[in-house]
Amino acid sequence: MKAVEGPLPLVDEDAPRRRRGLGTAITLAFFAGLLWLLSRLAHRLPWGDVAGALQAYRAPTLLAAAALVAASFGLYAAYELLCRRYAGHRLSKRLTAAIGMVAQALNLSLGSWIGGIGGRLRLYTRFGQAPELVARVYGMALLTNWSGYLLLAGGVFSARQIDLPEGWRLGEAGLQWIGLTLLAAWGAYALACARSPRRSWTLRGVELRLPSLRLAALQAGLSAVNWALMAGVVFVLLRAQPAAQGIGYGAVLSCLLLAAVVGVLTHIPGGLGVLEAVFVALLGHRVPPAALVGALLAYRALYYVAPLLLGAIGFVVLETGAKATQGRRRRTAGRTPAQ
Description:
The protein is an all-alpha fold. It is about 75% helix and about 0% strand. The protein has helices at about 15-45, 45-55, 60-85, 95-110, 115-125, 130-160, 170-195, 215-240, 250-265, 275-285, 290-335, and strands spanning about 200-205, 205-210. The longest helix is centred in the C-terminal third of the chain and has 46 residues, at about 290-335.
């Protein structure tokens, strides 16, 4: 065997560190730009007009918006029931649905580590489920939420449902291409669910399985309807503002879907400030910013704050129920059989 002549190629040991540094720099630059945009928005807003917009809401409008919020959280319960079917645990449907709604209420305002992951882990394990099962449930819930997003956002962006402000580099054609890409991504997922010869993978000791095509279609359908309901809440509140009568539902839905992605990229719980900045940036040339921000603050109160309070109460109730169940099991296990 002929020896290799010359020096061996060197491994760039600093490459991973440089990549991490570049990623950190990009993230910091993104945050800096977002903070600058939010500070400009805060300084320019006439907060007296925002307060007036909030005070102008009447009971019928708020009740209609609250009904849409309730319907949306009902769909979060349906997500959890899909997860129950996928993961195969034996908790009752009522208890599973309650855990799903509580976890989502905490997740929206406090972030996934406290709500989506931490809340589920605490409650499911308190009711006797293994952490590995909780990981499968959370993964399925996450996949359900974003599979519907891919389908709905892909269709909405492809149909050019929003008139972007002049001067935006992305342009409506660019947004349309993004929509087509999202639809292709969902199509690839559906094809994998239908035809992939490999059905499961193991990640850090947790088995992850592809759902069936029927289950994937249910995921996308439920999630797409839920995203549409969320936009419906904003639309009802925004159309109650006299200055926003010309805004169509498609434009509101497009803004909400775009804001959701920006919120995920920034890792800010609830997209606090991000939602408002996106709506003002995209619709501020058609609607006074005070009307937009007023509607979005009312949306946050109904969709985030009220469910957070109810979710905290629900968490305590479920914890108490789990403790009582564990006590009964210990007492039953400690009894001696009758002679």
